[in-house]
Amino acid sequence: MKKSEFWDEVENGLGSAGRIRILRILTEHPNCQYTKYALKRKTGLNSRELQRQIQMLVEIGWVKEYPHEPRTYKANLKKTPVKLVAEFFRRLKIENFKPSD
Q1: Three-state DSSP class for 73?
Q2: Which of 68, 83, 72 is nearest to 13 (CA)?
């Protein structure tokens, strides 16, 4: 992958608050698969917006879509940007709960 393609992918993956919410939920519990309904409840996104955002993440390979009925979704931690985003969220969560200086 060329450097410019990598950054295009990162910008697409993190290009909206909705995608960031979806990624945060999926990376907090990386072994779980979520339905659209579960993601809708956890993210607060409406159905149309959730569909749009999750489709973008599936298209760039950051989220795996499983063809169960209903379909389920899981973070693709084999992708380097997803691993880095997951680590970023994990560190933010730890820092957020540290006592203030």
Answers
A1: strand
A2: 83
| Contact assessment for residue 76 and residue 9, using Cβ atoms and an 8 Å cutoff | no
Alpha-carbon dihedral of residues 25, 70, 47, 31, nearest 10 degrees?
10
Name the residue with tokens 């159905």: 47
The answer to whether the CB of 31 falls within 8 A of the CB of 76 is no
Through-space distance between the first and last CA atoms of the chain, rounded to whole angstroms: 43
Whole-prediction pTM value?
0.85
The beta-carbon contacts of 50-58 under 8 Å, at least 24 apart in sequence, are 50/18, 50/22, 52/18, 53/16, 53/18, 53/19, 53/22, 54/22, 56/12, 56/13, 56/15, 56/19, 57/13, 57/19, 57/22, 57/23
DSSP 60: T
Instruction: Give the model confidence (pLDDT) of 49-82 as tens digits.
Output: 999 999 999 999 999 999 989 999 999 999 999 9
Strand partners, 72: 35, 66
